[in-house]
Amino acid sequence: MRSSRIALVALATLGLAACGSTPPTRPTAPPAVPLVSTARMAEANLAPASASLVSGRLALVPDAQGVHITGMIGGLQPLQVAAFHVHERGDCSAVDASSAGAHFNPTLQPHGRNNGGIHHAGDMDNLRADAQGRVNVDVRLPAVTLGGGAATDIAGRALVVHANADDYRSQPAGNAGARIACGVIRVMR
Questions:
Q1: Number of domains, the chain
Q2: Is the pTM of this model over 0.70?
């Protein structure tokens, strides 16, 4: 009888202790830092890489969602589908544009599709050339800034066109193939 009373007291004590404890708090995401671009406009002049004939001129303008990229790229094969990314370094000096480094990825996410779940900040949708091998570029790149030096700033980085389509799955770069054009994003003053 005595052992059952001790057990009952112990259970009651544990029950009361559980009622008095505060529930564990759920971790919350850090507060969102507003994305603020300080540049009004930038440009990137794409030059051929890896012995291609691909080149182009692009304008970059910040907007409410990130950065809007427009312009023309030519020299692709007719109807070619080519990957297009922001790369981490604004250096296109290597013949194969490897000097531009990896995809721009300040949040250390896996590679994926822009606006399609988790992805690098520099991941964009594939470009599709017309029958003359030209692409009219009209891309919005969300969650990046232009100028100001924030971790999300793409000014001074490189835009790169790849020989193959991005499969949006393969890590770390979507199996996009050779770099066939590269241009540094330069803020216009």
A1: 1
A2: yes
